[in-house]
Amino acid sequence: MGVDDAVVCDASVLAAMVFGEPGSSEAHAVTRSRRLLAPSLLRYEMAQVAVRKCATGRGDAPLVEQEFAAGLRVPVRLVEPSWLAVVRLARDKDLTAYDASYLQLALELGVALATLDRGLARTAAALGIKAAPTR
């Protein structure tokens, strides 16, 4: 498997797949048969999605925990981006460090970004990063 079959997967895509959120079919399509890469913060963001779902009553806690545990088994290779470059990119593009970490990793590795966040996809495109899916 080469770089061409890899994609940096952000939390919006993984959460859609794991929790059956809107966009899950697009998320599955863009990640199918691809190597998934992400910064380690993906796990923290997924945990926060689960916490928020339980707190807001949008899911029954045992089911949310079960879905979250299944998400931990999705094969995602955690790769740390250049953190100083993350800070610079976040500052230059007025992004959160979270969003900038996914973009920076895609830039460093020369791979596409899988995101359901339209704003992040627009920023990725402006940086020359292919972003999918586009909805």
In one word, what is the shape?
A: globular
Strand content bin: 5-15%
- CATH homologous superfamily label: 5'-nuclease
Rounded mean pLDDT is 92
Annotated CATH architecture: 3-Layer(aba) Sandwich
What does this structure look like?
The chain is α/β, with parallel strands linked by helices and 135 residues long. It is 58% helix and 12% strand. It has a single domain, classed as 5'-nuclease (Rossmann fold, 3-Layer(aba) Sandwich), CATH 3.40.50.1010. It contains seven helices and five strands, in the order βααβααβααβαβ. Strands 3-2-1-4-5 form a five-stranded parallel beta sheet, sandwiched between helices.
